[in-house]
Design a protein that fits this description.
- The chain is an alpha/beta fold.
- The chain is built from four helices and four strands; from the N terminus they run βαβαβαβα.
- Helix 1 packs parallel to helix 4.
- The longest helix has 11 residues.
C-alpha cells in the first residue's frame, strides 16, 4: 500500500508507519504543500496512492463534491495520545 501523508498529518504517525515498513510520502516532500486538495487527489489517482489526512475537507470533496470517485482517502480523527495505536491498527489492513 502506497500512502501519501497530507501536510496536516502528525509526524509521529508518518514516522510510525515508515518504521512499520509502509511506503509513505509526505506532501511537502513532493512539492505539493500549499496546493489545493483537488491537485493532491489528482496526484494520488495518477500515481496509485492513498491519502491519509486529518483534514475533513478531503472526505467532503469526495463524498459530496465534484470529485466523486477520484482518488482514495483515509480520514484519521485522532488525538496525540493515541498515535501509537493508530500505527498499530494499520497493520490490520
Amino acid at each position: 500500500m502506497r500512502l501519501l501523508a497530507d501536510e496536516n498529518l502528525h509526524g509521529g504517525i508518518i514516522q510510525g508507519l515508515r518504521k512499520a515498513n509502509f511506503e509513505v510520502l509526505f506532501v511537502p516532500d513532493i512539492d505539493l504543500d500549499g496546493h489545493k486538495d483537488r491537485e493532491i487527489l489528482e496526484y494520488v489517482e495518477k500515481n496509485d496512492f492513498l491519502v491519509i489526512s486529518g483534514d475533513k475537507d478531503f472526505g467532503g470533496l469526495i463524498e459530496f463534491g465534484m470529485l466523486w470517485g477520484i482518488g482514495k482517502v483515509m480520514l484519521l480523527r485522532y488525538r496525540i495520545l493515541n498515535i501509537d495505536q493508530i500505527v498499530k491498527n494499520f497493520n490490520y489492513y
